[in-house]
Amino acid sequence: MQKATRSVRYDGVSDPIGAVPAVPADMGAPAVPAVPADMGAPTGRPAGAAQGYGDGVIGPSGPLTISAPRLLVRGRLTGPGAVTIEDGRIASVRRGVPPAGPQHVRMDRGVLTPGLLDLQNNGSFGVDFAEASPQEWEQTRRQLARRGVTGVQPTLITAPLPYLNAAFDRCAAAADAAAGLPLSRILGVHLEGPFLSEARRGAHRADWLCDPTPHAIDTLLSHPATQRMLRTLTLAPERDGAIEAIRQLAAGGVIVSVGHTDATAEQVGAAADAGASMVTHLFNAMRPFRHRDPATPGEVLTDPRYFIGLIVDGYHASPITCRLVYAAAPGRVVAVTDAIVTAGLPNGTTLSFGGGPVANDETGLGRRPDGTIAGAGIVLDEGVRRLVAAGIDPAEVLASATEVPARSLGRADVGHLLPGAYADLVWWDDFFRPLRVWIGGQPVPTAPGPAERAVNC
Questions:
Q1: Residue 25: what pLDDT?
Q2: For position 125, which CATH number holds?
Q3: How many structural domains are present in the chain?
Q4: Structural domain range at position 122
Q5: What pTM, to 2 d.p., does this model score?
Q6: By C-alpha distance, which of 376, 310, 388, 389 is closest to 344?
Q7: Residues 363 and 437 grouped into a single domain
Q8: Hey, which residues does 422 pair with through a beta bridge?
Q9: Residue 128's beta-bridge partner residues?
Q10: How wide is the angle at C-alpha 376 spanned by C-alphas 399 and 181, nearest 5°?
Q11: Cis omega before residue 80 (within 30°)?
């Protein structure tokens, strides 16, 4: 199943990508829905921000143009081409390299893509999103942005309702406090639980699980911050009341994801009939695929109604399994990290997560003291490198971390290099290391080094 003739190492470094086709003539914009103001999306360059082409910031003299040898557009690596930015959004995408000018930042190598979107991230760099202070929210979103993650769906796991209410309050406050700053955007909240299978609960506490009864759903949604911020909810469709809950949630605009489930393929199909459209960390915490009992994996891999969340650290799903999933469901795979509080920290650092202790093992996996996997220890840019090293086509990999998650959320204003979308951009070198990042056209501060290879002309 490996795509041929790529010399790769599993440490995340691969051979440089080769020649790519020209930028297609038709780069018209999709319909761009308005970004909900109450999710704290950055709206432009704040007063007093640095100006000048050297920083890649839109100055008073006109729009900013960024050109690169290759661009990711509609799932294809094309180029050379250029993106023009006005008022924090992409104004145009065009073929070729424009003439030199004071508002033109020309990249001499690599590829320009939309910013990465991580739709399952519990926290990173020592911060748990469920308990983060305002300062910790800003710190973690800044660190994610530096790694090219320009949008994140903070993930909260099973907990008592009063605890979840307080966590949603903090998420909403974080979104409000950082509006206009070049930080990773909050794309809404992913609630993983409490309507999960006890048999497939993984690191979730059994005594906190419950059925998604109408009363439970109404109680959950009665909290104002939850109503405002909840975007995705993971549940087990075989639990009592789950199908009706899926209908209610989907009708209210919540994306329902199937996960932590012992469901049969038939039950997962019924969930899609009711409005479910996503699966949470395929193969993990679910009934396994068997040739006479395909269960959740068999149903979602063959049902085009489902987007497929896949943890891309190479351990939750092996490189061979990742290649299988990308081959089976092209255009539907959403690369996620399922990162937890220990991501980015030295192995062996013990912290609290989801009501119990957790630490990264020698491979970087977050584990409970009994060995249960609690989450991943990578940032999404590392996941990109590992997938490419596994032999998956770079365009498919990059799309699965940008365009596909945007489509799964029903959003055309993030995750795309198309007119009308936010100018959330990442410039990568030929080994898929992020060199420069922009959010809403604003540069994300990065350490000096390889990023200086850009040419300001």
A1: 38
A2: 3.20.20.140
A3: 2
A4: 116-408
A5: 0.85
A6: 376
A7: no
A8: 89
A9: 123
A10: 60
A11: yes
Q: 180-204: buried (b, 16+ CB within 10 Å) or exposed (e) per residue?
A: bbbbbbbbbbbbbbbbbbeebbbbb
The answer as to whether 303 is a domain residue is yes
- Identify the residue whose tokens are 């109503």: 227
Does 348 share its domain with 234?
A: yes
What 3 state SS string does 411-430 have?
A: CCCCCCCCCCCECCEEEECC
First and final CA of the chain: distance in angstroms?
A: 44
Query: What confidence score (pLDDT) does residue 431 get?
Result: 95
Query: Beta strand pairing status for 442-443 and 189-192?
Result: unpaired
381-310-275 Cα angle (round to 5): 125
Q: What is the pLDDT of residue 284?
A: 95
Give the whole-angstrom CA distance, residue 94 versus residue 411: 22
Distance (Å, whole) CA 225 – CA 166: 9
Nearest to 154 by CA among 288, 317, 341: 341
The residues that are catalytic are 338
Matching residue, tokens 């996960």: 259
Query: Do residues 120 and 153 lie in contact, with contact meaning Cβ atoms separated by under 8 Å?
Result: yes
Residue pair 439/145 in contact (Cβ under 8 Å)? The answer is yes
* Residue 71, domain CATH: 2.30.40.10
Residues 7 and 51: their CA atoms lie apart, in Å, by 42
Q: What helix, strand, coil percent values describe the chain, rounded to 5? A: 25, 25, 45
Q: Please, what are the averages of pLDDT over each run of 10 residues along the chain (457 residues)?
A: 32 33 38 35 30 36 89 96 97 93 92 98 94 95 96 94 93 88 96 91 86 95 96 98 98 97 98 98 96 97 98 96 98 97 87 85 87 88 96 98 98 97 97 96 69 37
Residues 6+ apart with CB under 8 A from 235: 193, 195, 196, 212, 242, 245, 246, 256, 257, 258, 259, 261
Tally of residues, the chain: 457
**What torsion do the CA atoms of 265, 268, 270, 276 make, to the nearest 10 degrees?**
-160
pLDDT at residue 4 in the model: 34
